[in-house]
Amino acid sequence: MEILFVTTELAPYVKVGGLADVSAALPKTLKALGHRVTVVVPRYPAFEQAGLLVARRLTPLRLELGSRSHEVTVFDGRLSSQVDLVLLDAPGLFDREGVYGERGEDFADNHLRFAVLSRAAAELAKQREESGAPYDAVHVNDWPSALVAKYMKDLGLKTPTLLTIHNIAHQGIFPKSTLSDLGLSEDDFTVDGIEFYGSVNVLKQGILSADVVTTVSPTYAREIQTEAGGERLHGVLQSKGRVVGIVNGVDYGVWNPATDSNLVARYDAENASNKARCKGALQKELSLPLDERAPLLVNVGRIVPQKGTDLFIDALPRILRGSNAQVVVAGDGDSALIAKLEAAIEKSHGRAVFVRAAPEALVHRMFAAADIALVPSRFEPCGLVQMYAQRYGAPPVAHATGGLIDTVVDCDARLETGTGFLFEEATSDALFAATTRAISAWESSAWPALRRRVMRLDRGWERAARQYEQAYKALGTSR
């Protein structure tokens, strides 16, 4: 099959969250299964800065959106995975350092930026249909490319579309006045269309227009169809019918302590002795006390309420008082939460460190050094951090929600079963209790067996890629 995969992030070049990892790993795995995948992404400055070789097409795309015309230059390239790449360049829209915004604020013209991306991707699908060799499916991701499905239908295209919701909290909600910039009219602004409580909702339109909707775990697929978890789109999703939940995978070509060149020493499930060397190296790198008898806890992710940062901040003093643990936090995000986190770290007497906007190589070293990973997300569509931690031998402490339920099994008291430590309520008390339980387990003789068990888990992308493969095939048979 031939798949057009439209995204706004692509690791290792442009990364805000897990979408970047998915956009690199899923097409790579689909190609290994024998499919041809073309990834479409805006031409951000990062691609040129990385020295990626691309060829400019002689004929640009000329698009009409409302009363405005846009010229989009198309560049063709190839990723190191041999996946085909198309970069789309529109003057003034994508030549910025930020993907969605900067200094904590979204760009004011995001509606226009991603409408142009989506309309251009629809045009690429149109060109393929007109050539007599259409794509078998067009796969779009989250609200920034959700309008691809709408534009393709408006163009009368027959190529089926699949929309993956990576986080339903981000919906692309804009004032009604943006309709023209999106190339839409009053006829589209209805309850059965893009209208949403008096505003425009791009994700809603994508859900309505796409042939199939998927999300990134079975539990999250159920949660977003409830009033509590659907962010006011639960009714739209329920009326759509089945929402397919497919758990993301881990790219073991990138995240593997046995081959990771970022580490001072490598190790695997059968011989993890070098993990202690990694721990000592990180303690030295981050000026933590050199103490192999202190459990090292890591928390990696955006500093936002969704990720439970406030719960972690509240629990941190108790964690440090109740044990000899050391804590390393890495991430960026909400400035007010960061200020609170820095204040809490300041009172840790040198046993906790915060690294803002940590480079990816350091994140690898953090997981290799970690004994335990903390994942206190209030909600989590899938989550990759807990799976990276498991691969590197750091059983996670995680809130029982979304994809965390699908990827972490709570350990029993004897540590004979389980792959982490779950807590039910999104409170600092529950996080503290689960962390205390994990630290006690780390001190027991059963810990090495638990670590070996979590490192042996198969979280590779092939299983997920085969599920997407079946979803693409079903698109073809359902039309």
For this entry, give a set of tags.
19% strand, Rossmann fold, 21 strands, 16 helices, globular, alpha-1,4-glucan glucosyltransferase (ADP-glucose donor) activity, alpha/beta, 479 residues, six-stranded parallel β-sheet
CATH superfamily of the largest domain: Glycogen Phosphorylase B
Number of strands: 21
Q: Judging by the overall fold, what is the CATH architecture of the largest domain? A: 3-Layer(aba) Sandwich
Helix content: 25-40%
* Distance between the amino and carboxyl termini: 16 Å
Cα Rg: 23 Å
Number of helices: 16
Largest sheet descriptor: 10 strands, mixed
Question: For this structure, what is the CATH class of the largest domain?
Answer: Alpha Beta
User: What percentage of amino acids are in beta strands?
Assistant: 15-25%
CATH topology group of the largest domain: Rossmann fold
Please mark out the parts with pLDDT under 50 across 5 or more consecutive residues, or reply none.
Answer: none
Q: Shape, please?
A: globular
Total tally of structural domains: 2
Q: Write down the overall mean pLDDT.
A: 97
* Sheet/helix structural class: alpha/beta
Catalytic activity: [(1->4)-alpha-D-glucosyl](n) + ADP-alpha-D-glucose = [(1->4)-alpha-D-glucosyl](n+1) + ADP + H(+)
Domain Starch synthase catalytic: 3-238
Binding site for ADP-alpha-D-glucose: 15
Function: Synthesizes alpha-1,4-glucan chains using ADP-glucose.
